[in-house]
Amino acid sequence: MHLNDTKGYKLFRYFNIFVMIMIVVITFVPFINIIAQSFSSERFITAGEVFLIPKGFNVETYKAVLSNDRFWIHYRNTIIYTAVGVAISMFLTTMLAYVLSKPKTRIKGKGFFVGYAVFTMFFAGGIIPTYIVYNNTLNITNTMWSVVFPLALSIYNMLIMKAFFENLPTALEEAAAIDGMSSYGIFMKIVLPLSKPILATMTLFYAVAYWNSWFQAFMFLNDWTLFPVTLFLRNLISGATATGEAAAAEAGSTQIASNVRSVSMFLTVLPIILVYPFVQKYFVSGVMLGSVKE
Amino acid sequence: MDIDSQVPGGETGRIANNPETGIVSKQGAMTTSEYEEKLRQTRVSKWESVRKSLKKDWQLYTFLILPIIYLFVFQYLPMIGNAIAFRRFVPGGSMLGEEFVGLRYFEMYMNDRTFWRVFTNTLAIGGLTLLFNFPIPIIFALLLNEVKNVKFKRFVQTASYLPYFISMVIIAGMIMEMLSANGIVNQMITWFGGDPTIFLQRAEWFRTIYVGSEIWQKTGWGAILYLAALTNIDPNLYEAAAIDGAGRLKQTWHVTIPGIMPTIITLLILNIGSFMNVGFEKVFLLYNPLTYETGDVISTYLYRIGLGSANFSYATAIGLTQAVIGFILVMGANLLSRKVTNRSLW
């Protein structure tokens, strides 16, 4: 094939490799800039001299942020919300996906249940009624539950999982049923062990969603001790927060410096970047699985 | 669908399409009383089969209980709560409001000049996003597909969807750092001899920043499905085209593009459907009163008047309108696609 490539096509391929390299560079530059700022002195950042390499290299800002108790309270909150949220999400998603993966001859009213779930993807209650339900009807604002429950069941994830269950061979389940195993037993002892790849994918999907979420906390929480680190960060970058000022004061500045913001951003994004190279293939296979169904 | 297959008399009264005469005829015609008797029996037997299924598989049905309750409480209750768009809501009162006021809140926003401004902004930002963010992942996938070195290809792909997994707060933070007076963008402008601009305080820049960062964040991820579709194209098609004398460009046009067309259509439907759902989080994090003129969208406006100024009913009326328009757009795009291309999401 390569032998009869035209001159124009060869030229195109060099150009194409250049374009791809540029895309990678553009993708990474903002991250590298933040990392460079986080190790730089504020003086050089303000002067606009920090680009991709730290200037006035120091780790003082890291020390200041890491020794700030408030930062750790927020970080701990994020870890708790992510852990609890993922547990609830996996429970709800797996159960619903499993039932809906069964043929309609076995689950009466399957069409209705699928419609009941899928409708929520295309029509939502809106911010204000949601707030009223959380605040007046359920009375769970200013608790951890108001941060966890909004993300607890993603119908998109459920459909991906449903597609996975539908593709599982049914022979084992049928054999177990003939042997008199209950549906609970079949689900726990046969289906779940066969589904490790999709369970891993979904756990990661949900974990990233909980780790990154901030708006639910912004809307429903008043007590700063409950804030996740993303909300702390949001208040830091919008420049109006007692927490941010405390961090800034420890960094030896009266206003929140760029390097404090950069350090906080880097520490928040770090877990995602660290696990990303190992988990990205799961994300991709998960999305593919969902699309195969169409 | 479940219901279709269990239409009364479904077996005997099936409509047959005679391909030779083109005449649609009903086979096994019944008298009305026979039909009603059949209908009754079907209902009884359907109920009977539900009872049997419940008895045999009750454990399986228990799996449904919690998800159904969850969806009802956290999705359907807020939908019902939209009733306050038509009823006056008193803070601390019933979630369904106190008294019926008809379309008062809807008339209110029709006469609200700010509403029309945010409506226009929503259309503009949504339209620009669709215009750039829909085709760019396709182009990226096509270019990446031409990269022959598998390792390099995988590296570019992996790198390109990293931004998709980053919290919007971090994205907004990075945008602010880069566009600040001493950020890297202004460093480059100064280096080329220009004057620094505080981009985030200039209304004329807001949409560019929004769409630009959207491209940066979502191009790689948006290309995944296209790349999958590209690997599924039969290589024999390319060989056949080459034998017929088609060059690279022609092969792309006649083999590659048709090969990924189903994916393009599906994603286009989804994109049109979510056209009005301009990313609330990003606008909310990046805008400020100086950029309201071009950046304020329906969702951010209703958030301010609803939770900021406690005009719950008014904000709900606006939100409900937006949700209904969004729903109609998805349904419309889906219907259109089914009519025109025979492909649809459902």
Automatic annotation (TrEMBL), chain A:
<keyword id="KW-0472">Membrane</keyword>
<dbReference type="InterPro" id="IPR000515">
    <property type="entry name" value="MetI-like"/>
</dbReference>
<feature type="transmembrane region" description="Helical">
    <location>
        <begin position="263"/>
        <end position="279"/>
    </location>
</feature>
<keyword id="KW-0813">Transport</keyword>
<feature type="transmembrane region" description="Helical">
    <location>
        <begin position="12"/>
        <end position="36"/>
    </location>
</feature>
<feature type="transmembrane region" description="Helical">
    <location>
        <begin position="79"/>
        <end position="100"/>
    </location>
</feature>
<feature type="transmembrane region" description="Helical">
    <location>
        <begin position="144"/>
        <end position="165"/>
    </location>
</feature>
<keyword id="KW-0812">Transmembrane</keyword>
<keyword id="KW-1133">Transmembrane helix</keyword>
<feature type="transmembrane region" description="Helical">
    <location>
        <begin position="214"/>
        <end position="233"/>
    </location>
</feature>
<dbReference type="GO" id="GO:0005886">
    <property type="term" value="C:plasma membrane"/>
</dbReference>
<protein>
    <submittedName>
        <fullName>Carbohydrate ABC transporter membrane protein 2, CUT1 family</fullName>
    </submittedName>
</protein>
<dbReference type="InterPro" id="IPR035906">
    <property type="entry name" value="MetI-like_sf"/>
</dbReference>
<feature type="domain" description="ABC transmembrane type-1">
    <location>
        <begin position="75"/>
        <end position="278"/>
    </location>
</feature>
<dbReference type="GO" id="GO:0055085">
    <property type="term" value="P:transmembrane transport"/>
</dbReference>
<feature type="transmembrane region" description="Helical">
    <location>
        <begin position="186"/>
        <end position="208"/>
    </location>
</feature>
<feature type="transmembrane region" description="Helical">
    <location>
        <begin position="112"/>
        <end position="132"/>
    </location>
</feature>
<keyword id="KW-1003">Cell membrane</keyword>
UniProtKB/TrEMBL annotation, chain B:
<keyword id="KW-0472">Membrane</keyword>
<dbReference type="GO" id="GO:0055085">
    <property type="term" value="P:transmembrane transport"/>
</dbReference>
<dbReference type="InterPro" id="IPR035906">
    <property type="entry name" value="MetI-like_sf"/>
</dbReference>
<dbReference type="Pfam" id="PF00528">
    <property type="entry name" value="BPD_transp_1"/>
</dbReference>
<keyword id="KW-1133">Transmembrane helix</keyword>
<keyword id="KW-1003">Cell membrane</keyword>
<feature type="region of interest" description="Disordered">
    <location>
        <begin position="1"/>
        <end position="21"/>
    </location>
</feature>
<keyword id="KW-0813">Transport</keyword>
<keyword id="KW-0812">Transmembrane</keyword>
<dbReference type="InterPro" id="IPR000515">
    <property type="entry name" value="MetI-like"/>
</dbReference>
<feature type="domain" description="ABC transmembrane type-1">
    <location>
        <begin position="119"/>
        <end position="333"/>
    </location>
</feature>
<feature type="transmembrane region" description="Helical">
    <location>
        <begin position="257"/>
        <end position="280"/>
    </location>
</feature>
<comment type="similarity">
    <text>Belongs to the binding-protein-dependent transport system permease family.</text>
</comment>
<dbReference type="GO" id="GO:0005886">
    <property type="term" value="C:plasma membrane"/>
</dbReference>
<feature type="transmembrane region" description="Helical">
    <location>
        <begin position="118"/>
        <end position="144"/>
    </location>
</feature>
<feature type="transmembrane region" description="Helical">
    <location>
        <begin position="312"/>
        <end position="336"/>
    </location>
</feature>
<dbReference type="InterPro" id="IPR050809">
    <property type="entry name" value="UgpAE/MalFG_permease"/>
</dbReference>
<protein>
    <submittedName>
        <fullName>Carbohydrate ABC transporter membrane protein 1, CUT1 family</fullName>
    </submittedName>
</protein>
<feature type="transmembrane region" description="Helical">
    <location>
        <begin position="164"/>
        <end position="185"/>
    </location>
</feature>
<feature type="transmembrane region" description="Helical">
    <location>
        <begin position="58"/>
        <end position="77"/>
    </location>
</feature>
